[in-house]
Amino acid sequence: MRAARAFLQKLQDEQSLARTARITTDLYGSLALTGIGHATDRAILFGLSGELPDTIEPAAMERILHQWQTAETITLPGGQQLPFRNQQELVFHRDQMYPQADIPSHPNGMRFTAFDDEDNPIAETIVFSVGGGFIRTSEEFAAHAAPSRAVPYPFHNAAELLAVADVNGLSIAEMIFANECALLQQQRPELSSEQVESEVRRRILHLWETMKQSAERGMATEGILPGGLNVRRRAPHLATRLRLGKATDPLAPLDWVTVYAMAVNEENAAGGRVVTAP
After folding, report:
1. How far apart are the first and last CA of the chain?
2. Cβ–Cβ < 8 Å for 126, 102
3. Distances in Å between the alpha carbon of 261 and those of 211, 273, 274?
4. What is the per-residue pLDDT across 211-267, written as a single tens digit (0 to 9) for each?
C-alpha cells in the first residue's frame, strides 16, 4: 500500500497524474505467489486510491473494494477514474523475481507504470518490500542505501539490551524512547528536542489507539473470514461469553488476553488495520 501510494505521489510531483489513463502494477516472486492470500492485490488497490495503512478507515476499504469488484475501476484522490483489471492492470508474475540484471534478486519486487491515453509509458517505479512495512526503490536497493540508524543505546540482541540498560542505569523503556527520539531527530533535524519527544509520544499513543481499535473491531465483527476456507470469526462469540461469565473466575484476565489476541488476528486475516509491533 505504501509503495502504490508513493507512486501516486511521484505522478503528482511530476505533474503527470492528469494525463495518466491507466496504471499497471507488476508483482514478482513472493508478492505474486502469496499476493491474493496476503491481500496484496487489495493493498495495491487501496494505495492507488490514495490510502495509507495507518489512516485508512474500514468504511473506505469497503467502498473501494465494491467499486473494484463491480466496475473494475479505481478512483484516484482527485476523482479521476482508471481501469483496474486483474491480469491487465494488476499482473502476478509467479514464476520470476524482478528481472533486471543490475539489481540483486529480491523476493518482494513490484513495478508501477503509468500510461497516457495513447498507451505510451510516462512514468515507472520499481520498489521492493523489505519487511516491517518498509519499502526501498530499485535505486536505493542497488546502491545498498539504507537510512542512518545511529542511536545512543545500540544493541543487537536481548543480552546486549539488558547489559546496556544495566551499565547506563536505565529501564528498557527509557532506552528505547531515547533511541526513537534520536532516529526521528535524524529524519527531522529542524525539530527541537522538545518537539521530537512530543512527536514520538504522539506516535506511540497513536499506535496504542490503533491496537485498541483493532481489538474492539475484531470483537464486534462477526462473519466469515476472506480467503475461501470458510473460517468463521471466533472472537465475538468468545468475548460475549466472557462478558456473561462469572466475575470471580481468577483466570478471566487470561481469557481476555486470548480474546484480544484472537480479535486482532482475525482483523489481520480480514485485511483490517492492525499494528506491526511486539
Report:
1. 21
2. no
3. 10, 14, 11
4. 999 999 999 999 998 777 889 999 999 999 888 876 667 877 899 999 999 999 999
Q: Is 22 helix (H, G, I), strand (E, B) or coil?
A: strand
Which H, E and C letters describe 31-83, residue by residue? Answer: HHHCCCCCCHHHHHHHHHCCCCCCCCCHHHHHHHHHHHHHHCEEECCCCCEEE
Which residue carries 489476541 as its cell?
261
pLDDT digits (tens, 9 = 90+) for 163-213: 999 999 999 999 999 999 999 999 899 999 999 999 999 999 988 998 999
98 within 8 A of 29, measured Cβ to Cβ: yes
Residue 229 has what DSSP assignment?
A: S
Q: What is residue 89's three-state secondary structure?
A: coil
| Residue whose entry in the numeric block shows the C-alpha cell 539488558 | 162
DSSP 138-186: HHHHHTT-------SS--SSHHHHHHHHHHHT--HHHHHHHHHHHHHHH
Tell me the CB-side half-sphere exposure of residue 30, using CA atoms within 13 A: 9
The answer to whether 199 and 191 are in contact (CB under 8 A) is yes
The residue with cell 520499481 is 126
Q: Which residue has the higher pLDDT, 263 or 149?
A: 263
What residues contact 39, with CB distance under 8 A and at least 6 apart? 226, 271
